[in-house]
């Protein structure tokens, strides 16, 4: 693996926040393409957090320097495509500080404040092929090079035993963590992964074949809990389809258009704690609109859009299937795998022809929602104007069957000597449990807590329990 040059620190601003948090806002410069440093640079943004202490006896200069050089724990966010929350709003902050770390929340390239990807920035690269080539630079292989470059920068004057750092990867952040373990294990002290044991050996088709099974179970659970939503969802889809036939459609506040297929993507929420209830609340709200006003109100449509945020986080949509692509010889292109796999399944045949599906399905049958899947229609303007501008680039990426580099080094994972602690969820709708088990068996020395008591977002919804489980694995507690 090629060596990484340290990032260049552009600016550093420190603040004290409520809760006795000393937060430093950091901007770094890294190569846009680490293999070709002459091709330009990107800016990364992060926040470093440690305890703000006001001791009775002022600290000496040496003690202050020591506080600034506590070992780092770096949080790797899920997605792909999302920046970090502010440290005071993150459950990990206080837990990590109490255990002697300082925490770094670094926005991945293209997200948050790290040279964010949007339609304007992508289109500015040139034609569709150049846009696709630019977007390829935002995969996990580039992210871990950024992380390693930032580590070298921040720990340059640290003692040798503190130069390595720990990582905490949630969901896609766990995928990034496995890439880090594959590429730069010498930079890591330990790794914590929650819902992030990536299907290292599997193609996108195999991944979606597995996740549609769990999605089907979650739909069944939804209608078992809310049987009144069987006719309610049908009324809503009939209304949406009727307006589509009338030619008026249902414009969304952000500029998209509410179609039956877009409406049926609400199942994305089913994979988290309280997700069934969130969807029911929205269905109730929309159905109440029809009963009272014979149309959907702007407030309700805005509430719908809050569940489908792809247009404001384009990396999530455009690179979602690319997180499963490798350069292995013979590995197929993703070719809109979620769409191809789903439309062949009876409950999701609405993907192929929604009007025909509605006409042929008895009104008493439940309509099933899709989950964490991205489809070609997300780029046809229904989701919003941003993704529509990236449609050609998205099609090119979907057709790509060769990548510059593999995401994972299986041989390195088999000989791994970095301590890895993971929580894996039996009922995970996003990261299939059996495929996660397959990956766990590949990583030498990993310790895994498997549970059917939590869902994919447990690091937020059940944070205290999840952190306790992870640190129990690390501390090697024996009951």
Automatic annotation (TrEMBL):
Domain AB hydrolase-1 as annotated: residue spans: 73-223
Bilayer-crossing regions: none
Annotated InterPro entries: AB_hydrolase_1 (IPR000073), AB_hydrolase_fold (IPR029058), Peptidase_S33 (IPR002410), Serine_prot/Carboxylest_S33 (IPR051601)
GO molecular function: peptidase activity
Record keywords, A-Z: Hydrolase
GO biological process: proteolysis
SUPFAM superfamilies: alpha/beta-Hydrolases
UniProt record similarity statement: Belongs to the peptidase S33 family.
PANTHER family: 2-SUCCINYL-6-HYDROXY-2,4-CYCLOHEXADIENE-1-CARBOXYLATE SYNTHASE, PROLYL AMINOPEPTIDASE
Record protein name field: Alpha/Beta hydrolase protein
């Amino acid at each position: 693996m090629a060596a990484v040059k340290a990032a260049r620190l552009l600016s550093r601003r420190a603040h004290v926040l409520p809760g006795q948090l000393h937060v430093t806002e950091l901007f770094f410069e890294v190569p846009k393409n680490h293999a070709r440093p002459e091709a330009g640079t990107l800016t990364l943004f992060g926040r470093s957090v440690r305890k703000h202490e006001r001791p009775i006896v002022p600290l000496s200069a040496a003690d202050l320097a020591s506080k600034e050089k506590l070992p780092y724990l770096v949080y790797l966010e899920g997605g792909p495509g999302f920046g970090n929350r502010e440290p005071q709003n993150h459950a990990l902050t206080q837990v990590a500080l109490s255990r002697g770390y300082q925490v770094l929340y670094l926005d991945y390239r293209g997200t948050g404040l790290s040279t964010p990807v949007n339609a304007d920035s992508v289109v500015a690269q040139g034609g569709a092929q150049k846009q696709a080539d630019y977007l390829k630079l935002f995969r996990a292989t580039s992210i871990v090079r950024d992380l390693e470059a930032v580590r070298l920068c921040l720990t340059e004057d640290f003692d040798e035993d503190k130069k390595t750092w720990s990582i905490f990867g949630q969901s896609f952040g766990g995928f990034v963590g496995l890439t880090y373990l594959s590429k730069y294990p010498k930079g890591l002290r330990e790794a914590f992964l929650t819902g992030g044991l990536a299907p290292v050996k599997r193609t996108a088709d195999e991944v979606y074949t597995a996740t549609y099974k769990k999605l089907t179970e979650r739909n069944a659970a939804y209608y078992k809990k809310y049987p009144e939503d069987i006719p309610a969802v049908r009324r809503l889809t009939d209304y949406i389809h009727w307006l589509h036939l009338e030619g008026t459609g249902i414009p969304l506040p952000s500029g998209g258009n509410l179609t039956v297929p877009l409406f049926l993507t609400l199942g994305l929420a089913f994979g988290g704690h309280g997700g069934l209830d969130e969807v029911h609340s929205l269905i109730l709200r929309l159905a109440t609109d029809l009963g009272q006003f014979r149309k959907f109100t702007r407030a309700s449509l805005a509430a719908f859009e809050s569940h489908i945020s792809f247009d404001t986080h384009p990396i999530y949509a455009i690179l979602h299937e690319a997180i499963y692509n490798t350069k292995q010889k013979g590995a197929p292109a993703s070719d809109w795998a979620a769409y191809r796999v789903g439309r062949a399944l009876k409950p999701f045949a609405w993907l192929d022809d929604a009007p025909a599906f509605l006409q042929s399905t008895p009104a008493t049958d439940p309509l099933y929602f899709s989950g964490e899947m991205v489809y070609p229609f997300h780029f046809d303007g229904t989701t919003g104007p941003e993704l529509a501008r990236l449609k050609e680039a998205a099609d090119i990426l979907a057709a790509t069957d060769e990548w510059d580099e593999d995401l994972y080094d299986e041989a390195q994972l088999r000989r791994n000597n970095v301590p890895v602690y993971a929580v894996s969820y039996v009922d995970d709708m996003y990261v299939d449990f059996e495929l996660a088990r397959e990956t766990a068996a590949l990583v030498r020395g990993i310790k895994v807590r498997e549970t059917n008591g939590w869902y994919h977002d447990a690091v937020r919804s059940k944070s205290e329990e999840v952190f306790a489980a992870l640190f129990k694995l690390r501390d090697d507690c024996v009951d």
